[in-house]
Amino acid sequence: MSPWMQKVLESKRAMRQRLQALSFSEKLKLLEKLRDRSLAIAESPLRRRQHVKG
Amino acid sequence: MKATLDVINQMQVDGAIGKYAIGGAVGATFYLEPSATLDIDIFVSLENSPGSPLLTLSPIYDYLTLRGYQAEKEYLVIEGWPVQFLPPSDDLDREALQQAVETEVEGTPTWVIAAEHLVAIGLRTARPKDFTRILQFVESGVLDADKLGSILQRHGLLAKWEQFGVKFLGGNP
Lengths: 54, 173
What we know:
The complex is a heterodimer of chains A (54) and B (173).
Chain A: H1 3-20, H2 24-43, H3 45-53
Chain B: H1 2-13, E1 20-23, H2 24-29, E2 40-44, H3 58-66, E3 70-72, E4 75-78, E5 81-86, H4 91-98, E6 101-105, E7 108-112, H5 115-125, H6 128-140, H7 145-154, H8 158-168
Parallel strand pairs in B: 2-5
Antiparallel strand pairs in B: 1-2, 3-4, 4-5, 6-7
């Protein structure tokens, strides 16, 4: 594995640990934002058009 | 989410439900990094209807629809969140509910299924997303190996755990 990739993976691991260490209330606020984004993406006209094309 | 839990707590106070605990992706978020989900799984103990050996979700539907909340497929939408109420289906669910961890969300008390029980339930359910979450639990280091081993043994899931280990952990669960 290249040093660059190792650095990327280490950075991702550190981010996950930071998120894991948040309080439940803080995590749920993030989860609500993730949910809002998922719903917005699902409702976007671009995605609907893609879905119709199959 | 807090508003949803406030309603569920009030249901408990009013006797519509017994003990409850959050499971699924929201429950896992208590231990792991948040991951996107569209609904909340609530494990809930219910009383049998008088004269019936069957558990029914009717008291929950009646309670919530009377207060203006809508049912959508298998969910009840409470303060913007689709909530699925899951009565225990076996001894594992019953134990998970009994041993749930008490916590709070912005001052609102609530209960979450213990990490080891979430893993055992995921192993039993065995969908791809359950395996992904189990891997997250393993990698996070939050699991108590002795507690997990004892739960898996008690509920006949050791063989499945070994298969999971061979498939996803190089034979080292």
